Amino acid sequence: MLLRVEEITVLYEKAKALDNVSFEVAEGAVVTIIGSNGAGKSTILKALSGLKPLTSGKIWFLDRRIDGMAIHDIVKQGLIHIPEGRRLFPNLTVLSNLKLGAYLRKDKADVKKDLDDVFGHFPRLNERRSQKAGTLSGGEQQMLAIGRALMAKPKLLLMDEPSLGLAPLLVNELGPVIKNINRLGVGVVLVEQNVPLALRVADTGYVLQVGRIITQGTRDALKGSEAVKKAYLGG
């Protein structure tokens, strides 16, 4: 098992953002966490990457307990977070943003190869390599955020609302991008409000409501769930 989350609870002041949440991610899997605004989806990713401390519970990554670990040490383990809103360095070039993704790596030859691979995945970034990140389109910025994360050589990629703010055509292109990343052997935890997109790419999913997991299952089981359709797909 790549990731194991055991009964985690997270408080914001006295309010429970997450309440006794447990889930697992197998090696090579794409797992989605879906739910409405304010359900606690982003809080899960912040807890996994060390940005939000747990009130209780445990997080295991590659059989090593990581809750309470320093953020940079979590990154070194290969758990990489693409936050909502991309969080690029707007005044730096595309190339500089990508190189910052590999900041903690010492394997310079492999870094060069991975940079070439990123440009192979996203040719538009190669065309824009000398352009400042803040001048890119929304779709190009999302490509750059994903490319920067890949430069950190992830074993597990946490993606927070990657479709947010993208035109429908670009949202359709996002699914194949996630699938291609997964084919590289990278596990993915995808947090999405766009449930059709999430269920196109995920193997399994968890439905979160007010900080609690209320339903879980395979992609097909969730697609066929009347409760999920009513609550999240408008059925």
Largest sheet features:
6 strands, mixed
Order of helices and strands: EEEHEEHEHHHHEHEHEEHH
Q: Radius of gyration in whole Å, from Cα?
A: 17 Å
Distance between the termini: 34 Å
Question: Quick one: CATH superfamily of the largest domain?
Answer: P-loop containing nucleotide triphosphate hydrolases
CATH topology heading of the largest domain: Rossmann fold
Oligomer: single chain
Low-confidence stretches: none
Going by helix content, strand content and strand pairing, the class is alpha/beta
Q: CATH class of the largest domain, please?
A: Alpha Beta
How many domains comprise the coordinates? 2
Tell me the CATH architecture of the largest domain: 3-Layer(aba) Sandwich
What coarse outline follows from CA principal-axis ratios? globular
Proportion of beta-strand residues:
25-35%
Give the spatial strand order of the biggest sheet.
Answer: 6-7-8-3-9-10
Q: Give the averaged pLDDT, no decimals.
A: 89
Considering DSSP H and I runs of 4 or more, what fraction of the residues is helical?
25-40%
